[in-house]
Design the sequence.
């Protein structure tokens, strides 16, 4: 399969990052800390950025959160991260950005939900106020339409038109059309407020993959704004990842999408970085981006009753994730490296030879040795429990990376 050429959109600068145009598809994430806690929020932003997130959004919902934004941004910059920080506003964004000018100046982009800024004349006034602040400060905005918070007046009018004219559309079809209408009308309103086209990004998020695909196909055909793509409320764990990958995979393969987010529901006290890893893997699976060395790992079968290869694959994955923040800076190209952790003689040697570095573990009843291959050549044989194997195999990986990719070494 050949991916379609990416739809050409207007490039929009968000802080240090360009979205759209010829820029690569960007990974975005969002914190789930209480924004008023500047220390915790800044720490999580840094963690998300280190994991590969290129833009990070934070909730700005109350005065305490708005007051904390300048400190959050300062802490992130002091930690060495230039990742753009986006403020997520609902209901009172016009008020918070006006009353807390340092908050407005510190953020790199404002996300506005047109369904949550008010009703009637007040809605347009409040929306325009936010756009005017962005205009005056040179900030970008994202007009983020969401299926769960659509403008009720728009939905009612479109439902009535559907009924009166006998158009025969389902309520779901009407709602999906309303999302696109809302995004396009809001774009016009933003530009009437003086915001230039190269400061506007759009999104129309739904919670069902087929709805999302249809909405973005329609939206992409009617605008030139960069599109932020992702399911809203994708869900937990496997369900959230699979539904997101299904929808995003189709759209990205069709050349639609300039930034993506995988909106996973975390386990209690779970790792927020999982949504970043998932987004990176989706882009890497399509060959659109490379973020970290890819690991081919055996799924296991009746020949691999030992859990050694499973534990080894897990430890190698953890090691790669820990090392990537440093490697990303010092070792350009390491993200294209391939690794293999295989569980038996059937495919183990072949997959290991095909990778830059591979290890083939013995299956049940096979000789208790683990040949290691580097660039197709067997170089050594390892043995021992999973932790010992992982320690030695990761040492081999580190040596290879330093020799082949580290700046100033080659």
Sequence:
């Amino acid at each position: 399969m050949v991916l379609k050429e990416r739809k050409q959109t207007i490039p929009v600068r968000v802080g240090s990052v360009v979205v759209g145009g010829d820029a690569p598809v960007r990974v975005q994430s969002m914190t789930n800390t209480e924004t008023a806690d500047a220390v915790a929020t800044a720490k999580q932003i840094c963690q998300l950025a280190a994991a590969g997130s290129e833009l990070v959004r934070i909730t700005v919902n109350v005065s305490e959160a708005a007051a904390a934004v300048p400190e959050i941004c300062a802490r992130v910059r002091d930690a060495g991260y230039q990742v753009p920080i986006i403020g997520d506003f609902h209901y009172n964004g016009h008020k918070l950005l006006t009353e807390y000018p340092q908050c407005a100046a510190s953020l790199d982009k404002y996300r506005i939900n047109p369904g949550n800024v008010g009703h009637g004349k007040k809605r347009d006034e409040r929306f325009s106020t936010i756009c005017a602040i962005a205009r005056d400060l040179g900030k970008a905005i994202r007009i983020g339409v969401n299926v769960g918070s659509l403008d009720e007046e728009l939905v009612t009018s479109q439902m009535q038109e559907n009924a009166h004219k006998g158009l025969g559309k389902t309520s779901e079809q009407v709602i999906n059309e309303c999302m696109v209408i809302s995004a396009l009308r809001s774009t016009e309103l933003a530009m009437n407020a003086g915001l230039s086209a190269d400061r506007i990004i759009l999104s129309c998020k739904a919670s069902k993959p087929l709805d999302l695909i249809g909405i973005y196909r329609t939206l992409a055909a009617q605008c030139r704004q960069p599109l932020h793509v992702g399911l809203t409320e994708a869900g937990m764990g496997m369900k959230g990842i699979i539904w997101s990958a299904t929808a995003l995979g189709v759209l990205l393969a069709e050349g639609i999408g300039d930034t993506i987010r995988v909106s996973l529901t975390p386990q209690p006290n779970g790792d927020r970085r999982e949504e970043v890893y998932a987004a990176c893997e989706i882009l890497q699976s399509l060959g659109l981006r490379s973020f970290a060395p890819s690991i081919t790992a055996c799924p296991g079968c009746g020949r691999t009753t030992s859990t050694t290869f499973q534990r080894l694959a897990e430890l190698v994955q953890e090691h790669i994730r820990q090392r990537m923040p440093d490697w990303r800076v010092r070792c350009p190209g390491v993200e294209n490296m391939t690794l293999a952790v295989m569980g038996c003689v059937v495919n183990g040697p072949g997959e290991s030879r095909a990778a830059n570095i591979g290890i083939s573990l013995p299956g049940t009843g096979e000789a208790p040795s683990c040949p290691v291959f580097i660039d197709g050549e067997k170089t050594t044989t390892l043995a021992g429990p999973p932790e010992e194997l992982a320690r030695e195999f990761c040492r081999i990986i580190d040596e290879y990376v330093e020799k082949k990719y580290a700046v100033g070494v080659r």
Observations:
- The mean pLDDT is 96.
- The first helix runs from residue 38 to 51.
- The first strand starts at residue 12 and ends at 14.
